[in-house]
Amino acid sequence: MDVKNLDAPVNTVTFNRSEIDAPTGNIYEAISIISKRATQINTEIKRELLEKLDEFATYSDSLEEIFENKEQIEVSKYYERLPKPHAMAVQEWLEDKIYYRDTTTKQ
Fold first, then answer.
1. CA–CA separation, 15 vs 81, rounded Å?
2. pLDDT of 65 above 60
3. For a designed S-S bond to 27, which of 6, 21, 52, 64 qualifies (C-beta 3.0 to 4.6 A apart)?
4. pLDDT at residue 31 is higher than 90
5. Which GO terms describe its biological process (predicted)?
């Protein structure tokens, strides 16, 4: 996933309700789709972060020694500054980048 190219807001933004429910015609269905996508994004970001932090991990048997690894700190700060997964999901929804289908109708 390329989280660097998303224009999702970092701060809270108010959206027009009619823009969000326009594709489905139902605000609850739209929010459910956005929520599921936000969960997917969160899982991807978490996996990516853990992989990067594992590269810098130092394992020691002593609990007394705590190492400060500047690379780990920088990676963590980068991920903290990213927009939240729900903001990314809403942005993808508004840009029509989320595929969804209605399973209750026969196609």
1. 22
2. no
3. 21
4. yes
5. DNA-templated transcription
